[in-house]
Specification:
The termini are far apart. This protein has a domain of 51 residues. By secondary structure, the protein is mainly alpha-helical. It is built from three helices and no strands.
Length: 73
Amino acid sequence: MPSVPGLRASVASYARPGRPCPVCANRERGPIDAGLTVGHSPRYVARLYDLSRAALSRHKRVCLGLEGGRGDT
C-alpha cells in the first residue's frame, strides 16, 4: 500500500474496541487516504469506493487526524 507523507500512523480501530475502521481495513486504503488528503470530499471518495460518507468522515477525522469543516460532505 502506498504511503502518504504527513499522515499519522495507522489507527486500525475507533475509540471502541472490537469496532475496526472499515476504511483502514479496505484494500484500497492508500488511494482513499490520498483522495481525502488532497482535499476531495468524503462524499466524493465514498462514491468512488462504495463506502459510507460517515465512515469516510470519521476515518478522516480520527485515523488521519485531518480536520474538516461542517460542510465536509
